[in-house]
Amino acid sequence: MKQVEFLKLLQDLMQTEVELEEELKLEDLEEFDSLAILSLVSMYDKLGVNVRPGDIADAVTVLDLIKMGENKING
Amino acid sequence: MAKVSFNDVTISAIVTTIGNHKVDIEDEQNKYGFDDKTLNRLKKTIGFGSRYIVGDGICASDLCCQSAVTLFDNIDLKKDEIDGLIFVTQSPDYRAPSTAIIMQDRLGLSIDTVAYDINLGCSGFVYGLFNGFAFINCGFRKVLLLVGDVSNYFTKKDKTFTPLMGDAGSAVLIEKGGGNKSCFVLHSNGSGYKHLIIPAGGARMECSEETLKLVERDDGSLRRECDLYMNGAEVFNFAVKTVPGLIEELFESSNISKNEVDYFVLHQANYYILKNIASKLGVSENKVPMETAKVYGNQNSASIPGTINGYLSNEYSEKLLRSVFAGFGIGLSWAACYVTTDNIFAPVVRKFNNVL
Q1: Which of A5, B30, B152, B173 is surrounded by the fewest CB atoms within 10 Å?
Q2: What is the pLDDT of residues B95-128, one digit of tens each?
Q3: If you ran DSSP here, which 8-state letter would residue B93 be given?
């Protein structure tokens, strides 16, 4: 998956209108809450990446979420 | 690894009684402090809708007894033939004795009945069936399996848990017959026990003034130590990553394929978990009911029979069906089984009427 597609997917999952960029701090994103974490667990699982909820909760920026997708997200 | 099969043991009746008070999530929006946007996300994603609950002072055993009486009134059955009474619950009438023993008397069963409780939650229906099938396999004539919980016992104000939960109690009759093979696969992993737990009230942390204090927790919920705590993200993670593999394992051990299954009736934790599991299993969504929690709430160990009586009453009453049942949750504990039923007594859910 291309990074731009991943960011669009993240935006849809969190149902946010904020444009997501690598440097964006997740704490500044109102929609990054426990519900978003569930959606992200499901998304990584579908990508075939084993990510634990605690890892997602500990992520600081959008870039951290991209990195968790390992080699499944590029370009 | 527990993989077990039984021959010529079957289920002949499933009856479910639900709470008599319907609560819509909109009614509780202010109580839990959900703003409109959060509420809409919860409805859309998790499937928050309505739930049916009982009033204060009503126990899971009361719901189960109503279900059992409905069963007795409609099935040609001599009570003396019931050799086993199993009650799966986490909301017993008392911490001791086993509520099942009290129900032996309430239901007018013989004092020769083997009766005890099983302390399991969302996986409990399959574990209860496993115990019942094993009883029949060793010569018991009939087993009455009762499963159910009332959510008021677990928590009253926790916004991460209370608005998800519904109250229900089911009665299931297990007996010899049918001529089919049934298979069970059962697992336990205590390393995850802290993800779903009532910390206080046992010997590890006795009830005290301290454990009864309502405290605002890190997740923003109001909870006492004697209330149930759920780490929703960890439980979700466990469910979506474990249950598809559990069912694959069941296919393998019972030598069946997904095309041979008429219904996958899974524990109705919430719509989102079921949608994820169904998608990973790659089975048609019309074979995997997933709306129960949206309408009735998460009925804990009664959610599988609750789904049959809630949505599939005609199907189970009028057809021979091959089903996969799977439960997963507190413990952590998870189990699945493959069973065949043939025109069983499975009436539509009834509300609790408080006459017993």
Answers
A1: B30
A2: 999 999 999 999 999 999 999 999 999 999 999 9
A3: S
